[in-house]
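The instructor's notes for this session suggest beginning with a concrete chain rather than abstract definitions. Hand out the sequence below and ask the class to guess, before any prediction is shown, which regions might be ordered.
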Amino acid sequence: MANIKSQKKRNRQSEVRRLRNKGVRSELKTRIKRAQEGAEAGAEDAAERLQLAQKRIAKAGEKGVIHRNQASRRISRLMRNANKAQQAASS
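After discussion, reveal the predicted structure:
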């Protein structure tokens, strides 16, 4: 444990951020999973699920929860998989 006052404050701030980021990452995983399930099943609200997942990923990238390039990569993969599922369903 730190003895310096500013380092104690930094530790408290880091813990608060860690817990907040943990919640955001958990929500990201859930949104991505729901979007993929919706696309594969051909759900009526698949487009809406996809849009929500995309929005959350982009926001996490902007806020620094995940790296911006990682956010772009995740969105790209999500859209690519959704398009594959849509083409398979229409074929």
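Then share the key points. Residues 5-41 form the longest helix (37 residues). The chain has a mean pLDDT of 93.
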